[in-house]
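job 3f2a | input accepted
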Amino acid sequence: MGLFGLFGNKKKKLSNFQNRGAVILDVRTKSEYNGGAIPGSENIPLQQISVRLEEIKNWNKPVITCCLGGVRSASAAKILRSNGIEAMNGGGWASLHKKISS
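job 3f2a | predicted structure (102 res):
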């Protein structure tokens, strides 16, 4: 599978998550989040994910993680998945916002 196929699968997964009412979880710090974020997103900094797992589980929805560039959100998605939460890495918040707004 080429690069295009990988991108296509992520786009399809993103659409599937959105159609099921996914929560956008921004894992940047509070000050980063306050400087600009996707409207309606939740903010739980990466360092707090592990201690707030029950809160996230109680959303009963898939989760799309995002951060500034995609590294912290990849870590957060991995933590969530390893704890039984359906999650995907949405990457950087600005590019994710463009994808979900179009």
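job 3f2a | Residues 3-19 form the longest helix (17 residues).
job 3f2a | closed
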